[in-house]
Design a protein that fits this description.
The complex is a heterodimer of chains A (361) and B (204).
Chain A: H1 11-34, H2 45-56, E1 68-78, E2 96-105, E3 121-127, E4 133-139, H3 149-158, H4 170-179, H5 184-192, E5 204-205, E6 210-213, E7 219-228, H6 245-256, E8 259-267, E9 287-300, E10 320-322, H7 327-346
Antiparallel strand pairs in A: 1-2, 1-9, 2-3, 3-4, 5-7, 6-7, 6-10, 7-8, 8-9
Chain B: H1 10-33, H2 39-68, H3 80-110, E1 115-116, E2 122-123, H4 131-166, H5 191-194
Antiparallel strand pairs in B: 1-2
Helix pairs in contact in B: 1-2, 2-3, 3-4
Classes of the chains: A alpha+beta (361), B mainly alpha (204).
Bound molecules: protoporphyrin IX containing FE (2 copies).
Chain lengths: 361, 204
């Protein structure tokens, strides 16, 4: 070997060093790929939540979606009828389970007027006696516009305000709907939907399918919704100009007594889609009345007990499981990211958004 | 010749390799699950929590084994700086394998989540609910995970350096008795070895 270098490195050690460096590099690159840093096209929870912020702005301490809302407290009285399908303790006959909930309107702007969207939402956390929890977030519409997180992301991108006009570009929204025919059922609903005057008069659909597990271990795909007892049209809403009439209406109603909903659980038949929230199930499906939700009081979200709850739809008790609906893991992942952002802001951690003065109210 | 042990006890070696696989798997599962919105997020998290608690239990046992059976000494000719690096990184690894699962458990407690290890198995909270504590602990869980990964990379690189370059028996001390030829095999004489001072440890 002709090696003029005074520092002679035997070829065997070059091989050994390459092996060591190669091994470390392979592990590091694999880690970078799995962690998404080397896979920039993967849809991540971060991207979804960033896009929510691009659409609505960043409001420190608030939820990145359904930012405007109000806390409610009450309980759920089980009828016992769902017990044959799910072993969850919340469905035992005569069982009363405490509930901390939240009404809200969709969108990331906590100052949006209540009339800006026709949709209202109800989120609930049931704290079971055995320490398990059931969390659910429901919307006041019978179908969701999209079936996949990718389509949801595309929809958010289409709705991003144009930097020049400050408003979403109608052409982009039209292009999104044209490319996504699965949105048809939702659009048909939205055409006739009007912003309701009250949270209390709305039905709230779980939209995503779940699976009940009975005592024999049998699985029953289900969807649920909350159907209100109150049916009158609120009076406050007809006052024009009020931007925050929903919370006022709720306080007024609760001052006169608790508000009630029936939890209706629909059982799927084989073949009913469990992975597509844009499709309803046929009307003749068996529906059971699982019990009554009783809401007794409300509290502002800034100081109420719902503020620091992440209504992650995959926080489930034994007896309720996730279905194969692809929206569910995406919601769970995105809500966790949103929750980390807003709690980090509450903690004033460095690098987080600073709270804005509350003048825009 | 057998004054000092030339390898870790069987229990220590078994725990080392079992936990090495578990911890590296946890690091990949962790960064993988928070970087996806697919069903992977859900089932990886379902593995993450019980596997993390299993690591916590094993780490406690391992520490007890470590205290009862001190490891074989490092080669006497190892430069002081490398010795210090070895010692510091080993204690850092012990600290992190205990701290990571405890932080994971505490942050879920602080966030008000039920700490579910399966469909029905629930651990009690170990921290009062607090959004501020949740945020701090959640960031700590991520930062310590990165520190653990970097320490693991350095540890793996150093182990290979001992096994392939220094060939001083340090790597073999963590291997089964039968697989000694990977490292510190005295029968294999070559120029590479000749230019290194021989290890003080008695390997044969
Ligand atoms: C992939 C699709 C979806 C994404 C990315 C998404 C994203 C989000 C985010 C980031 C939040 C704020 C969470 C927090 O900080 O606590 C939120 C809240 C909410 N979402 Fe979704 N969402 C999706 C689908 C749905 C669906 C299908 C429903 C209805 C069934 C729904 C109902 C709700 C409700 C009710 C809330 C408010 C919860 C509360 O009051 O705290 N979302 N969403
Ligand atoms: C050796 C033990 C553990 C290791 C190495 C580990 C590692 C990780 C890593 C790398 C992440 C991603 C961090 C990020 O990118 O921000 C993570 C997240 C997480 N870990 Fe762990 N972890 C361990 C134990 C635990 C335990 C015992 C629990 C709970 C009981 C837990 C619960 C979580 C949760 C809930 C997340 C965040 C999920 C999300 O935000 O969607 N971890 N972990």
């Amino acid at each position: 070997m002709h090696d003029p270098a005074p520092l002679h490195v035997p070829p065997r050690r070059i091989g050994a060093w390459s092996l060591i460096i190669g091994a470390v590099a392979i592990v590091a690159v694999a880690f970078g790929y799995v962690g998404g840093w080397l896979a920039p096209h993967r849809l991540t929870p971060k991207k979804l939540v960033n896009q929510l912020q691009h659409d609505a702005g960043t409001f420190a301490g608030y939820r990145r979606n359904h930012a405007k809302g109000v806390c409610v407290v009450g309980h759920f009285d089980s009828s016992g009828q769902a017990q044959a399908y799910s072993v969850a303790e919340v469905f035992a006959p005569g069982q009363r389970t405490p509930v901390v909930g939240r009404f809200a309107i969709p969108g990331g702007n906590p100052y949006a007027p209540d009339s800006s969207v026709p949709i209202r939402s109800m989120a609930l956390r049931f704290t079971l006696a055995n320490g398990q929890q059931w969390r659910t977030g429901m919307n006041s519409m019978p179908v969701f516009p999209v079936a996949t997180p990718q389509a949801f992301y595309a929809q958010l991108q289409a709705k991003q305000p144009d930097p020049v006009t400050g408003k979403p570009d109608p052409a982009k929204i039209a292009a999104f709907f044209a490319a996504h025919p699965e949105t048809a059922a939702f659009r048909a609903w939205a055409k006739t939907a009007k912003p309701s005057a009250s949270f209390a008069t709305e039905s709230y659909w779980g939209l995503n399918a779940f699976v009940f597990v009975d005592a024999a271990g049998q699985h029953h795909p289900v969807r649920w919704r909350m159907v209100p007892e109150a049916s009158d049209v609120g009076s406050v809403a007809n006052t024009p100009g009020g931007a925050n009439y929903l919370a006022a209406d709720l306080t007024e109603r609760l001052a006169h007594g608790p508000q009630r909903w029936q939890l209706q659980v629909t059982l799927a038949k084989p073949g009913d889609p469990t992975n597509d929230a844009t499709k309803t199930w046929p009307d003749d499906r068996r529906t059971i009345d699982a019990g009554t939700l009783v809401l007794e009081r409300s509290a502002p979200q800034a100081s109420g007990p719902c503020r620091d709850i992440n209504y992650d739809p995959l926080v489930l008790p034994a007896g309720i499981e996730a279905s194969d609906d692809p929206l569910l893991p995406a919601r769970s992942a995105a809500y966790a990211d949103s929750y980390l952002r807003r709690t980090s802001e509450e903690a004033h951690l460095p690098g987080t958004a600073a709270p804005k003065p509350e003048t825009s109210r | 010749m057998n004054a000092a042990p030339d390898r870790f006890t069987l229990a220590a070696r078994a725990l080392h390799w079992l936990m090495a696989v578990m911890i590296v798997a946890m690091l990949f599962i962790g960064v993988g699950m928070v970087a996806t919105v697919s069903a992977r997020h859900e089932w990886l998290l379902a593995i993450h929590k019980p596997l993390g608690i299993a690591i916590l239990l094993l780490a406690v046992i391992r520490l007890a084994v470590r205290v009862r059976h001190p490891p074989p000494p490092l080669p006497a000719d190892l430069p002081a700086l490398q010795k210090l690096a070895a010692l510091a990184s080993h204690w850092l690894l012990y600290f992190l394998m205990l701290a990571m699962p405890l932080i994971g458990w505490a942050m879920l407690s602080a966030g008000g989540y039920p700490v579910m290890l399966g469909d029905a198995l629930r651990l009690p909270p170990i921290f009062p609910t607090s959004p501020v504590a949740f945020a701090v602990l959640r960031h700590l869980h991520g930062a310590f995970a990165m520190l653990l990964f970097l320490t693991f990379l350095a540890h793996m690189g150093a182990a290979l350096y001992h096994g392939l370059i220094r060939r001083d028996g340090v790597f073999a001390s963590m291997l089964p008795a039968a697989s000694r030829s990977i490292d510190g095999d005295r029968e294999e004489v070559d120029a590479d070895k000749a230019d290194r001072p021989s290890a003080a440890r008695q390997n044969d």
